[in-house]
Amino acid sequence: MKFFHSTNHRNNYLKLVLRIVLALVIIQAVRATIFYGMWIIVHPGTDIVIFQLLNGLNYIIVGILLLLYFKPSLKDLGLNWDDVRMRTRIFYIIGLTALIILAVSPYTFEWELHILVLGLLFGIITPLFEELLFRGYIWDKISESEGMINPHGLTLITVTLLFMVWHMGYIDVLMLHPLASGNLTMIMISKMGIGLVLGLIVGCLRLKTGKTYAPIIFHGLWNVFAP
After folding, report:
1. How far apart are CA 217 and CA 114, in angstroms?
2. Contact, 213 vs 89, CB < 8 A?
3. Which residues in 31-49 are b (16+ Cβ under 10 Å) and which e?
4. Quick one: which of 188, 137, 185, 131 has its CA closest to 163?
5. Cβ atoms of 102 and 120 closer than 8 Å
6. Which pLDDT tens digit goes with each residue over 163-195?
7. Cα-flanking dihedrals φ and ψ of residue 4, to 5°?
8. Number of C-beta neighbours around residue 218 at 10 A
9. pLDDT-based confidence at residue 111 (cuts at 50, 70, 90)
C-alpha cells in the first residue's frame, strides 16, 4: 500500500518521526531526572499522597518547560477557538466542567487528601499534558508533512504508536511507586496496550473534531473511571 507521493516525501516523513522520537526520549529523560531529584530530596517513602504530589508537580514543571521552549500557538496545540461553532463550544465547556467536578467529587464526599490528589493528577493534569503534547503539538507537526496520500489516517496511526511507546518511559515512576508490586514487565506491557487503545480513541476524536478539547475530556474521564 502506497502512503506517499514520492520517495523524497517518505524520507522527509521518516526524518520528522525520528526527530519526534528523539524529542520524546529527551522529554522522558528530563521528566524522570526531575522526578527522581524531587524524590531524593523529599523521599516520600510509603506516603502515596506525597509521591503523587511530586508526580503531578513534575508534569507541571515539564509542561511549562516545553511551552517556554517550543512556544506553540493555540493552533499548534489544537486549542484555537475562533472556528468552533457556539454549540460545540458549549459542549466543550460542559464537558470540561463535568470532568473537573468528577475528578474532585470523590474527595468532596470522602474528605481524603489522597483521593483529591489522584483525581487532579489522573483526571486533569495527565490528560492535559499528554493530549496537548500528542494530539496537539505532535499531531499538528506530522499532519503538516507534505506528500502523504492519506495524511489524516497516517497521522492517526503514527501518533497512536508514538503514544503507546511513550508509556515505556514511565518505568521510573513504577519502580519508585510506594505501592508497586507484581511483574514490572507485564505492567509495562499492560500500560502500552492501554495506551494503544486509548490513543486510537482520542486520536479518532482529534480527527473528527480537529481540536484537542474532546480528547482531553475523554482522556480525563477514562482515567477518572479507570479501575
Report:
1. 22
2. no
3. bbebbbebbeeeebeeebb
4. 131
5. no
6. 999 999 999 998 888 876 667 888 889 999 999
7. -130, 155
8. 19
9. low
pTM to 2 decimals?
Answer: 0.94
- Residue 193 to residues 8, 11, 73, 189, Cα–Cα distance (Å): 33, 29, 31, 6
SS3 assignment for 116-175: HHHHHHHHHHHHHHHHHHHHHHHHHHHHCCCCECCHHHHHHHHHHHHHHHHHHHHHHHHH
Which amino acid, 178? P
Give the residue among 126, 183, 196 at the shortest CA–CA distance from 157. Answer: 196
CA 213 to CA 219: how far, in whole Å?
10
Cα dihedral sign, 25-169-209-17 = positive
Cell representation of residue 194: 492501554
Q: In angstroms, rounded to a whole number, what is the distance separating the alpha carbons of residues 89 and 214?
A: 11
Q: Structural domain boundaries of the chain?
A: 7-225
Query: How far, in Å, CA of 202 to CA of 208, rounded?
Result: 10
Rounded to whole angstroms, how far apart are CA atoms 107 and 78?
Answer: 31
CB 219 within 8 A of CB 200: no
